[in-house]
Amino acid sequence: MNSSLAAIEKRVVACRRCPELRAYCAEIGRVKKRAFLAEDYWAKPVPGWGDPDARVILVGLAPGAHGSNRTGRVFTGDGSGEWLYRALHRARFASRPDATRRDDGLTLRDVFITAAVRCAPPANKPTPEQRARCLPYLREELAALTTARVVVTLGKIADDTVHALVKSLGSYRTPRATFAHLAETAVELPGGRPVTILASYHPSRQNTNTGVLTEPMLDAVFTRAHQLLAD
């Protein structure tokens, strides 16, 4: 990890901008889920992780209460992560198809994964104020990941968050696309960096169990990401 990303990670883990979320995460880690009673929960803000030279950035919603809030690594240890890492492995972005804990040996190639909000929120619904307090961390990551060319937004909150940053930092090369699966918007970030925002439905159980998102649909996102990188 480069020094800029390492410094951001330290600030994220130590963050206390939302004391109500810190208290909620700590309580989840104290009570635990029956299946994880023997585990020590991370119960702190969860930093982004992945390839520091990534050309693809994935932005999710927030840590799951018994997923990332337990393991300390984004999209690790829950159903959403199971879907995501299988797809990343099929697309040759991940070294293996499963993610169980921070030291499981998984590595990412050309991908960095982060989130709009870094603490698990009650009912997976962060408030506008909580989202605003977390926004500077994503801004810093986008600045540090200078090789990024595609930003995949997993869900509407992630999509809205990334577009909020574009409005404050950069400019639109094409009109913003209405959020939909595989919707694309071409933008320009500081330094003249051309980036495509590629939207996807979030791999939450609510979406995957109901067929709103299927594995072929998720595979199509990463196939398109490869095409954009080739272009």
Report on this model:
- With 231 residues, this protein is of the alpha/beta class.
- It has a single domain (3-230), classed as Uracil-DNA glycosylase-like domain (Uracil-DNA Glycosylase, subunit E, 3-Layer(aba) Sandwich).
- The protein is 39% helix and 14% strand.
- The protein is built from eight helices and seven strands, in the order H-H-E-E-H-H-E-H-E-H-E-E-E-H-H.
- The protein has helices spanning 3-13, 19-31, 68-71, 79-90, 128-144, 156-169, 205-208, 215-230, and strands at 49-50, 56-60, 111-115, 150-154, 171-172, 184-189, 193-200.
- The chain has a seven-stranded mixed sheet, sandwiched between helices.
- A hairpin with a 3-residue loop joins strand 6 (184-189) and strand 7.
- 45% of the residues are buried.
- The mean pLDDT is 97.
Supply database-style keywords.
231 residues; alpha/beta; Uracil-DNA Glycosylase, subunit E; 39% helix; seven-stranded mixed β-sheet
Number of helical segments with 4 or more residues: 8
CATH topology group: Uracil-DNA Glycosylase, subunit E
* Arithmetic mean of pLDDT: 97
Helix proportion range: 25-40%
Give the count of structural domains: 1
Q: Which CATH architecture would you pick?
A: 3-Layer(aba) Sandwich
